[in-house]
């Protein structure tokens, strides 16, 4: 081997994925390569042109751009041009020499042979190719109005040392200290350890209303082991914790779990009065269903605000779901039960579908059910009365009734725990087409109100049953394969050809396919996670799904969900009813490309699943 070829061989051996090749393959590779020189500022590749070789930076630097936006900056060992090679299509990005650069090139035929004979090479370049989805997300989610709610760190919300006391101090003394400090809560400490918190609400409920003597120690009336938040978290995370738990005070701890302060809803309201925590507070005070409906009308505006910030689609879904939960709980707890009296037996109201996964958008319908304790009488009129009131209220708030009648108003979906268990067993072992649909809906079950333990125990059992049923998994996989994303064989969008949505694409088809894939992989892993991202992570952690596939699917789900939210927010702003039908002509060329990539990831994952699970005939 001459000196120049030896130098190329040694250089490639230092950089992935070539460093994983056997020595004899590396020895032969330089003879297939050619060297090119690019002067600073010269365009090496034009987007849309024909790509027929892989490029490797030997020395210098190259900028990869998309319509002027920087996608990547490569130094020695960096590769480009792989999108055209992986897809056997046109070049996707411009490549420009940032400085005088020496480049190694490998022709398409040699690249294909190398990738076929050495899977590690194919995996490496496919991962680099799919990494563009993550770049797209970072570009999409740039803040546009700069609201402080989502950019402020928790440590910046802390206003001085928190007021604290010991657990042995009397209630009267603790209340006096709170009054003197002008605060609505006091932390209860044993040395440096946080053991509880006493709030105005605790004093009202556990002292005044309960007639507890004020000379009793704080430990008897405090909230034990309160939820805390890291000082490194963002205000958005505070908002999600407070909204989801309906609490108003969060102690702040550092990396060593030492208390460094306290944040309250007032701190968030000071940042942004229209934040979701403020709405939850108003909902808790709503005197009747009409007031709840009026307050729920704010939810689209809050979603619009979140989308205009740097919140992810996953976070927007969590907030929208938490607000819908707050509406449901207010109707259930304070209004329906005040009229009908307490429940006749232990029970839980459960959300199904996207609400269970905490992935609600501005266009959704109602999916819910009841899980009753073993001693309950399903025929008791109390259950139907509560279901009617809640369903009517949610419909008045803008959540349409389910076309398939998957709602607690249907007696079929008000069952005791043993009956639910038997139902899931039938779905797992004798799945019919309708049963597969029900299984997919009801595997997504989350308690909203009532005895959460009833639901937790039930879900653990049914997930265990489902994970052991090859027949059910095969039927679910078949259903997933039929959820084709709207993209054709040659990567063109498949558009509606008639009706009111003519010339648009139904982005929900792609999102639903990922939701189903995540559901199947999570079930195979025996995991009880509900959100799509958490399910993919659980499947990855348990070795059921390859790390690269899990990351790609999670990124594709986030991208499609975010584009859908942007579309729905624009519709609501224009006074139109939100839907899932995007006009690709209204997307930027960059967004169209990224959406094609996301759909392609779904198709590859569907193909991978079909080869992994048995087929149902």
Care to describe what's here?
By secondary structure, the chain is an alpha+beta fold. It has 24 helices and 21 strands. The strands form 6 sheets. A 4-stranded antiparallel beta sheet has the order 1-8-3-6. A hairpin with a 5-residue loop joins strand 14 and strand 15. Helix 17 runs parallel beside helix 19, helix 21 packs parallel to helix 24 and helix 23 crosses helix 24. The longest helix has 28 residues.
In short:
The protein is α+β, with helices and mostly antiparallel strands and 617 residues long.
Brief descriptors of the model:
single chain; 617 residues; alpha+beta; 4-stranded antiparallel β-sheet; 21 strands; 15% strand
The secondary-structure class comes to alpha+beta
End-to-end Cα distance = 57 Å
Q: Percent helix among the residues?
A: 40-55%
Low-confidence stretches: none
How many DSSP-defined strands?
Answer: 21
| Main sheet: strand order | 1-8-3-6
Number of helices: 24
Large-scale geometry: globular
Mean pLDDT, to the nearest integer, reads 86
Q: What does the main sheet amount to?
A: 4 strands, antiparallel
- Computed over alpha carbons, the radius of gyration is 28 Å
In percent terms, what proportion of residues is strand?
Answer: 15-25%
